[in-house]
Design a protein that fits this description.
Elements: E1 2-6, H1 8-11, H2 22-35, E2 39-43, H3 50-55, H4 67-91, E3 96-98, H5 101-104, E4 105-108, E5 111-115, H6 117-125, E6 129-133, E7 135-139, E8 143-147, H7 149-160, E9 164-169, E10 174-175, E11 187-188, E12 190-191, H8 193-198, H9 212-222, E13 228-233, H10 239-245, E14 252-254
Parallel strand pairs: 1-2, 1-9, 2-6, 3-6, 4-7, 9-13, 12-14
Antiparallel strand pairs: 4-5, 7-8, 10-11, 13-14
Helix pairs in contact: 2-4, 2-10, 7-9
Bound molecules: Isopentenyl phosphate.
C-alpha cells in the first residue's frame, strides 16, 4: 500500500478563498487510477481551510468568544473540498470513500491523540480507497483545533506501514530557499535532519499548520515507518504515476535514520 498526500497548494489556489483546481485534480486522480497501486489518500485544506482557520485562530484552540462560527465554517468548507476531490477520484475509476477526521480523530494540546485506524484497514480490506483530509476536530484540552493532513499521514504511516509515502506539492521537491521567492533556489535531492537544521528559517508562512520546516519534521518522523518517502511536483504531468510505480522521477527523498 502507498500513502499519498495531495497538498493543498496543488488541489486549490492557496491565495483565493475556496478556489478548487478541477483539471489538476482530475489528472492526478487519473494517474493514481492508471498506476493500479493500492493507496490511501490524504489531502490538504488549501484555501478551503487555512484562510478561515487563520481568521478565527482555530489552531490555538478556544481562546476567545465567537470561534464556534469558524469551527462550523471550516468544517463545512473542507468537506466541500473533499467532496470535489472524491468526485474526481470516482470519475477516474477509483472506489473512494471519505473518512472525516472531525468524526474519527481527536487532538490533545494540538497533537493528534486518537485516529480510528481500523476504519482505514477495514476499507482497504474490502478494496475501497480511504480518503481523509486536514480538518477541524475536537481537542480534549483546547476544546477544538486543527488536525493537519501531515499529522494524519504520519499516524497512518505508523499504523499501516506503507511501502512508500508520496507528498504531492506544487514544486519539484524541497529547495534550499523558497522557490516561489528565489528563482535560483536549488532542489535538495536528499533531506535528512542535518539538511533541515541547515535551512534558513525566515521564509513567509501562511499556513495555520506551519511552514515547510514543520512539514519536513513530520516527514522525518514518518520515514521510519516506510521504505521510501518522497516529495514530488504534482503540477508536472506523469510524475505522480511514475512515483507510484516506483520509477525514478525528479523529487526530494526524505531519510529519517
Ligand atoms: O492543509 C490543514 O491541513 P493541511 C487543515 O494538511 C485546516 O495543513 C482545516 C486548515
Amino acid at each position: 500500500m502507498i500513502l499519498v498526500k495531495l497538498g493543498g497548494s496543488v488541489i486549490t489556489d492557496k491565495w483565493q478563498y475556496r478556489t478548487f483546481r478541477p483539471e489538476t485534480v482530475a489528472r492526478l486522480a487519473q494517474e493514481v487510477s492508471s498506476s493500479g497501486e493500492e493507496v490511501v489518500l490524504v489531502h490538504g485544506a488549501g484555501s478551503y481551510g487555512h484562510v478561515m482557520a487563520k481568521r478565527f485562530e482555530l489552531q490555538k484552540g478556544r481562546v476567545r468568544p465567537g470561534q464556534e462560527e469558524g469551527v462550523s465554517k471550516v468544517s463545512l468548507d473542507v468537506r466541500e473540498l473533499d467532496l470535489l476531490v472524491l468526485k474526481e477520484l470516482v470519475s477516474a475509476g477509483l472506489n473512494a470513500v471519505a473518512i472525516s477526521p472531525g468524526s474519527c480523530a481527536t487532538l490533545r494540546d494540538g497533537k493528534l491523540a486518537h485516529l480510528d485506524l481500523d476504519r482505514f484497514r477495514a476499507y482497504l480490506e474490502i478494496g475501497v480507497v480511504p480518503v481523509t483530509y486536514g480538518d477541524v476536530t475536537l481537542d480534549v484540552t483546547r476544546s477544538f483545533g486543527i488536525c493537519s493532513g501531515d499529522q494524519l499521514i504520519t499516524r497512518l504511516a505508523e499504523g499501516l506501514r506503507p511501502k512508500r509515502v508520496i507528498f504531492v506539492t506544487d514544486v519539484d521537491g524541497v529547495f534550499d530557499r523558497d522557490p516561489h521567492l528565489h528563482s535560483d533556489a536549488q532542489l535538495l535531492a536528499d533531506i535528512d535532519r542535518s539538511v533541515l537544521d541547515g535551512l534558513p528559517r525566515s521564509e513567509r508562512c501562511d499556513d495555520v499548520t506551519g511552514s515547510i520546516y514543520a512539514k519536513i519534521e513530520y516527514m522525518l518522523a514518518l520515514s521510519a515507518h516506510t521504505d521510501e518517502c518522497t516529495i514530488i511536483n504534482g503540477m508536472a504531468p506523469g510524475r505522480l504515476e511514475s512515483a507510484l510505480r516506483g520509477a525514478s522521477t525528479l523529487c526530494s527523498k526524505v531519510r529519517g535514520g
